[in-house]
Design brief:
Number of helices of chain A: 15
Order of helices and strands of chain B: HHEHEHEHEHEEHEHEHHHHEHHEEHH
Strand order of the largest sheet of chain B: 1-3-2-4-6-5-10-11-9-7-8
CATH class of chain B: Alpha Beta
Helix content of chain A: 40-55%
Shape of chain B: globular
Helix content of chain B: 40-55%
Largest sheet of chain A: 10 strands, mixed
CATH superfamily of chain B: Amidase signature (AS) domain
Number of domains of chain A: 3
Strand content of chain A: 15-25%
Distance between the termini of chain A: 78 Å
Structural class of chain A: alpha+beta
Number of strands of chain A: 17
CATH topology of chain B: Amidase signature (AS) enzymes
Oligomer: heterodimer
CATH architecture of chain B: Alpha-Beta Complex
Number of strands of chain B: 11
Structural class of chain B: alpha/beta
């Protein structure tokens, strides 16, 4: 029998606010353990939460990017459960009235609906070391949005594409930095399978806290196979929570439905409802950075880039921002696209960097030098990578590598004469009308004169030289 | 002697802060082993008094500079333990001061110590304290009321000039009434709750207990105001206590709170106070607020539900009691809570958790919240007609330790008079209005419209000036 996978995702994304959602502690990654903490986020007796309005604005931004209906009122509920990383033993979250409802994203022609986006506080971290467990509460109280899809996804690849698209929206919206390796974007996947032709969903299992694109794909693929196997063997799948273990590439049961918590949600009496007017929401919309899709249209329609080239530039926010900044100050879009996708992307990969440490204005000037034939294409590459790795300006890079072309016609003539003299057979073939061999001779000259003469000059001088024989 | 008189004497250098504080400390050391009001006495009280004196000498005194103030033990103090009278927080000193404590320190008040209470403010007799019994200064065989029993007993016994308590369902008013002093539960939001260990967040309010309504007003002025750390706090309309004319004031006597189980002597005292107002030209009549009969169950569901979440943070992980060598996280949490919470606290956590369970939420918690809304609108309607509402504070005067009801349903019903103003977020005060044949004080409750705290304090002040208030027999003998 063939089975259809039915997948719904919950994406947890930490918001890029300066401070935590209910206190003034810094929201930063990688600080010394328990250094960004105060009585509020530590859940000390008598401490009270104060809402960070910026977190609400960023949640609304995420909702606007996904076409959600936005609630004017921000209301809060307490979700009660005991866990060492949860300081108050309740998480302040939004059950009854999420900030964003509905909406969705189109992935390769299929529309994946969202159920909701709500705001909540992240918990601390429990770090297990040999004989001890260490609690780090720096993350406790970091604003977190939970993006919940409807069960509209039908394959592991589609799930990955959805998360990629969502991540891109969040990163371009200045909402979340999207760093899955740091845990600022985590995914839970609800998976079930049903026989082809059926319209009744099967029993689902939830895989918690998947933290890379590769693992999303592998965890879902494993789980689909496991569930089909279970159905074929004993006819049923258990409703349960599972975790994906990357080392063994399998999912393992964490707890079954019978052990599920009753979270005893109720409205949090400590935080007053926050009202956002239509004007407030319009203001948030107006301040949204240009979303990736509209950048894509600009690249392909206005600049004439290919779909593939546009996607490559958009694949990293910092590349797209760099490209846009260059075009804005007059860089030719196609030349800029070639240089960004070519030499700069190569440098980025080589350095494992997530930025381009080259001044946009020097980059644009370098493109102009190449366009005016003052440096060669090879020279442009050299200049860019030299600036990238040595953090110097264009002038220094050009001088250090002696890139400016000052064409020495005596040298060019001498090199051409030498090459023609060394290949009498080819010259005679050319003379006999075989124009194809010209490119061989041209290549030889280019090799010798690289960076010292423009291709056009070599071309002209070579023809002249051949005619003189 | 009231605060403003004390202020004048201090500013005129006729009495020093140290002298006042010493008198209090002497009384405490002479009698607190009998009364049991304090859980902790500030060893630096005299040092603070000396600092305050410098400020007084320099002519920069505020109203409470150099004045001894007692604090209920659920108000966080970074230089004194804050235990909520629970084993859970034995020896716990918070890393910060409550907002009200900051304000008092800024005024140069002398924080004389931390006062006993019912564990986590749950109770009406201060007998659920893990640490000690507090006795009523009027009759040491009787309870001081609760939960702010230590705060009321300390003022009644003259251990401090004024004190702060907290009122969730009557915890300032009922002990004030039992101990024959004045106490105000302010309008919800008037005083920042930051640093008051939460029992039921939507109901908790910090308020003053003092020898007079006038002193309550002064202390309220010192602690009120919006605080950015408590979103539910608000700046109330600026107001002070005034010498009001009672002529033409419209006062309603709440029918639902003067029938039923109210003891005759209590009823008589309250009615004679009503009569006094009438004689001064006020218009007094009965008013019915029929939904008040549901206030007790609504209050216990809401307050216990909130408490069940508020008290979950006491898990033994970061602070507070923990059992020796727990085997696992689960045994750490359950062991801490099993050993360190008393029965009353456990009962409320159980009740509250039950009321929030899926399947029961709509029937219990949600219905209780709707009832609170209805009660609030009944009050709103009454305040369209009346300037203030009168009632007893408690159906009975202070009971003996032997007579604390063991049946919680009966025990909770005694809160009938106080819980409804709390559910409605209204200001309400207690002022002594008579004495029983046994010499026990009886309190009159005056409930006001939202933000009319100073209005009801002014009404009480007028009555207090005409009323012959008794000092506790204990004090007459002891001092």
């Amino acid at each position: 029998m063939n089975y259809i996978p039915v997948i719904g995702l919950e994406i947890h994304a930490e918001l890029m606010t300066k401070t935590k959602v209910f206190c003034g502690c810094a929201n930063t990654f990688g600080s010394e353990r328990n250094s960004n903490c105060c009585p509020v986020c530590l859940g000390m007796p008598g401490a009270l939460p104060v809402l960070n309005r910026r977190a609400v604005e960023l949640t609304i931004s995420a909702g606007l990017l996904c076409g959600c209906r936005i609630s004017h009122l921000t209301l809060w509920d307490r979700k009660n459960y005991f866990y060492p990383d949860l300081t108050k033993a309740y998480q302040i979250s939004q059950l009854y009235a999420p900030l964003c409802l509905g909406g969705g994203l189109e992935i390769n022609g299929r529309f994946i609906r969202l159920n909701r986006i709500h705001l909540e506080e992240d918990a601390g971290k429990l770090i297990h070391e040999r004989n001890v467990s260490i609690l780090d509460y720096n993350r406790a109280g970091v604003p977190l949005i939970e993006i919940v899809t409807e069960p509209d996804i039908r394959s592991a690849d589609e799930a990955v594409a959805f998360v990629e698209r969502m991540r891109r929206n969040l990163v371009y919206g200045d909402i979340c930095d999207g760093k899955m390796e740091q845990g600022s974007l985590r995914v839970d996947a609800n998976i079930s399978v049903m026989p082809e032709g059926s319209d009744v969903y099967g029993t689902r299992a939830e895989i918690k806290n998947i933290n890379s694109f590769r693992f999303i794909k592998r965890a879902i693929e494993f789980e689909i196979k496991r569930q089909i196997g279970a159905l074929e063997n004993n006819g049923r799948v258990t409703q349960e929570t599972r975790r994906y273990d990357a080392a063994s590439d399998e999912t393992f049961s964490m707890r079954s439905k019978e052990d599920a918590h009753d979270y005893r949600y109720f409205p949090d009496p400590d935080i007053l409802p926050l009202f956002m007017s239509d004007e407030d929401i319009t203001g948030i919309k107006g301040k949204l950075p240009e979303p990736p899709h509209s950048r894509f249209l600009r690249y392909t329609d206005a600049y004439g880039l290919s779909v593939k080239d546009a996607e490559t530039i958009l694949s990293e926010r910092f590349m797209s921002d760099f490209f846009d900044a260059a075009v804005k100050i007059g860089a030719d879009p196609k030349a800029a696209s070639n240089a960004v996708r070519g030499e700069l992307l190569r440098c980025v990969r080589e350095a494992g960097s997530d930025e381009i440490p080259v001044s946009v204005s020097d980059f644009t000037k370098a493109l102009a030098l190449a366009a005016k034939n003052e440096i060669t294409q090879e020279g442009l590459k050299t200049a860019l990578s030299y600036m990238f790795f040595n953090h110097v300006d264009l002038e220094t890079a050009v001088k250090a590598n002696n890139l400016l072309i000052s064409e020495d016609f005596e040298l060019i003539g001498a090199v051409i004469t030498e090459i023609l003299a060394a290949s009498p057979d080819i010259v005679s073939k050319y003379k006999d009308g075989n124009s194809k061999v010209f490119s061989y001779l041209f290549g030889q000259c280019m090799k010798r004169l690289k960076g010292k003469a423009l291709p056009a000059t070599i071309n002209a001088e070579l023809i002249k030289g051949l005619n003189e024989i | 002697m009231d605060i403003s008189e004390l202020r004048v004497l201090m500013d005129k250098k006729e009495i020093s802060s140290a002298e006042v504080v010493k008198t209090c400390l002497e009384r405490i050391s002479a009698s607190d082993n009998t009364i049991g009001a304090f859980l902790h006495i500030n060893p630096k009280a005299l040092e603070t008094a000396a600092q305050a004196q410098k400020r007084i000498d320099a002519g920069h005194a505020d109203m409470f500079t150099g004045i001894p103030v007692g604090l209920k033990d659920n108000l966080c103090t970074m230089d004194m333990p804050t235990t909520c009278a629970s084993r859970m927080l034995e020896g716990f000193t918070p890393p910060y001061d409550a907002a009200v404590v900051e304000k008092l320190r800024a005024q140069g008040a002398v924080l004389i110590g931390k006062l006993n209470m019912d564990e986590f403010a749950m109770g009406a007799s201060t007998s659920t304290s893990y640490y000690k019994k507090t006795r009523n200064p009027f009759d040491i065989t009787r309870v001081p009321g609760g939960s702010s029993g230590g705060s009321a007993a300390a003022v009644s016994a003259g251990f401090c000039a004024v004190s702060l308590g907290s009122d969730t369902g009557g915890s300032i008013r009922q002990p004030a009434s039992f101990c024959g002093v004045s106490g105000l539960r302010p309008t919800y939001g008037r005083v920042s709750r930051y640093g008051c260990v939460a029992f039921a967040s939507s109901l908790d309010q910090i308020g003053p207990i003092a020898s007079s309504a006038k002193d309550c007003a002064l202390l309220l002025t010192a602690i009120e105001g919006k605080d950015t750390r408590d979103q539910t706090s608000t700046e109330g309309p600026p107001a002070r206590i005034r010498d009001v004319s009672l002529k033409g004031k419209r006062l309603g006597l709440i029918e639902e709170l003067i029938v039923g189980d109210v003891e005759d002597e209590t009823l008589a005292a309250v009615e004679s106070a009503a009569l006094w107002y009438e004689k001064q030209g006020a218009f007094v009549e009965s008013v019915s607020l029929p939904m008040l009969k549901y206030a007790v169950p609504a209050y216990y569901l809401i307050s216990s539900a909130e408490a069940s979440a508020n008290l979950s943070r006491f898990d033994g992980v970061r602070y507070g009691y923990r059992p020796a060598n727990p085997e696992s996280y689960e045994s750490l949490v359950s062991g801490s809570r099993r050993d360190a919470f008393g029965w009353e606290v456990k009962r409320r956590i159980m009740l509250g958790s039950y009321a929030l369970c899926s399947g029961y939420y709509d029937d219990y918690y949600k219905r209780a919240v709707r009832l609170a809304d209805v009660i609030r609108s009944e009050y709103d309607k009454a305040f369209e007609t009346y300037d203030a509402l009168l009632s007893p504070v408690s159906p009975m005067a202070a009971f003996t330790f032997d007579n604390i009801p063991t049946d919680p349903a009966r025990l909770y019903l005694a809160d009938i008079c106080t819980v409804s103003a709390a559910l409605a977020g209204l200001p309400a005060l207690s002022t002594p209005c008579g004495y029983t044949g046994n010499g026990l004080p009886v309190g009159l409750m005056i409930t006001g419209a939202r933000w009319d705290d100073y209005g009801i304090l002014s009404l009480a002040d007028a009555f207090e000036r005409a009323f012959n208030r008794k000092r506790p027999a204990f004090r007459e003998v002891g001092q």
